[in-house]
Amino acid sequence: MTKPTPAPETPPANRLATEASSYLRSAAHQPVDWHPWGPEAFEKARSEGKPILLDIGAVWCHWCHVMDGESYEDADTARLINEHFVPVKVDRDERPDVDARYQPAVAALTGGGGWPLTAFLTPDGEVFSGGTYFPPKDLYGRPGFPRVLQTVADAYRRTPTKLREQAREIQAAIERSRDAPSAKGAVSWGLVKRAFDAILMNFDFRHGGFGEAPKFPHASAVELALTEVAQAGDEPLTTVVEVTLTKMAQGGVADQLGGGFHRYSTDERWVVPHFEKMLYDNAQLLRNYCQAYQVLGIEYFKEVAQGTVAYMDRVLSDREGGGFYGSQDADVGVGDDGDFWTWTNAELEAALAPDKELYALMAAHYDITPHGEMHHNAAKNVLFVAETVDDLARRARISPKEAEARVAEGKRRMLEARERRAAPFVDKTVYTSWNGLAISAYVDAWCALGSDACLAFARKTADFLLEACHDRERGMAHQWLASTGPRVWGLLDDQAFFALALLDLHVATQEPRYLEAARSLADILLRDFRDEDGGLLDLSRPEAAGAVAKPLGSKVRPIQDTPTPSGNAVAAIAFDRLHATLGDGEYQEASARILSAFAASAPRYGLFTATLALAARQHLEPLPTVTVAGGRDDPRARALFEAAARAYPPGKPVFWVDAADGLPGGTPPSARDFVEGYPADRRPAACVCRGETCNLPTSDPAEVARQLAAAPEAAAPPPPPA
User: Which domains does the chain show, CATH number per domain?
Assistant: First the structure.
């Protein structure tokens, strides 16, 4: 009798088993002797004279999972690592400050970066070699990981002094690059115009978006283009916005059934995405579609925004307690490459059976054929809009309304079928910076879609984070988990993004506590994060000043938009809005110093300084302000307030003054005269001001919206100085 083969034993848990991060815990039973980031690993490397193997990845990262399965779960590879290295694993979402310091070093060596980031460090934490994904054997023109490990180990054993000198030279070069004189520039319209030029230069007129494959959303660039479309009706930039948002929404990068967006497209047509879904992408794109609907009135953009809200509500949020979750994974298991999201012909037939006509309609709509787009399984199809509803109506000789109803029915049944599949993992970590983006997006959804539910959840989330992650002296913590509470303090993006979200909430709710909390965070930024020239540093944690690894003591002053907006640019926007709301010149000066610190170097980064250009535009041409005079319980005053708060442009100060209230700081003098001279028994009215010039008061909500939509005089920026 043949004995059954015993199941392989699970390796004992390593140090990562007790970590808070889902990504780190997923490696808790790998045979690699992993250390979390911290002094213990570096002390061990120094005492044993070994280099450090640093792996930086994320729970949503497909190739991180691939390398985990191929290499870090392989006993022979683990033995090689444990013998020659001190291995350290880092979650880039949990520690963006660590990732920000090692990506440039690896990029300097290899010409590129990304995740997984594989770096070899000296015991002082400086990079002497590295790369990204390495296959288990020589493949794809990349050396196999065991060969890389052995080569690096041999080199470090033979010439440790040489490699340490090389690491110091690499770090010194990066420091020189960061500290190079920026030739502080004047804050001028030239910065804004050059950003518009970069948008048009990189725009893909055929497929929308910017650049070639792989193609990422550039939400800040779209938002910047919209400012000029709204103000001047710029035709080329209108094309940029319309084509980009339409093609993205029709592509496979959009979840055609469940709403929301995947992280990026591997091709220029937006068809085959990397399937992970990030909170920061969905928040920023929700803002794009809401604002584009307000400016352009395209109904399709409203539908996309509503679908994105539905996804975020259903999957990426804690409806009970408040807070948005970080991400949803691309895959379910090893060997899976987006199988949850993709479809075979047989799966479509089963979902729509026995309605063969509906099957044919949906197959044509989404181009579902026997041979799909996925390399790992040729039968799998990515859903993208190959034929519009109007195309389908002509094909089937039915009315567009009937075709729309049939497509809606097909999508409903397909989504029901998909929901019966095992779904990819959702990382329920609440990241403060990303939640700030999501709160602002939900306020935009209240403005554009009229969704009171979105505003209510934005408030719930802000209240939860102010309670759970706020400290009067330290500001906002970076993350919150139910199992650990707040963790990782002192990062720039958390303070800046959340301050801006609180200002958005203050406009929408008129609650002073949100304004006071935003002011408190701004003051922490000015006290703890400011560099000598006025630019802001990406962290203020004292323990990061070199105690763990030398690169953590280096200055990083984010100017570029990465997947998220530049922390410096967002802070500048928040400072100017605080000045407009409170009338405090210190905040205006702080914004000017940030913009001046980066004005000369911004052109080097082109499209990636769109948020900086947004900040410069707001600084040079302040947003309008609206003052509403009328009782809080008067529906006529409520109608005026909502017309003002919900109208484009976003972020403008709105003051709703009841006769019993004092006048808020920052109220324009002309509006102040209007309120102080306005009898309480008169019909409520609103006054729209631009700078010191105010329109005549009006009691018509439609007139308030019209005045806000009107372009200011001499709005077109002059050409940049020679």
Answer: 15-179 (3.40.30.10), 189-332+427-620 (1.50.10.10), 345-421 (no CATH), 625-709 (3.40.30)
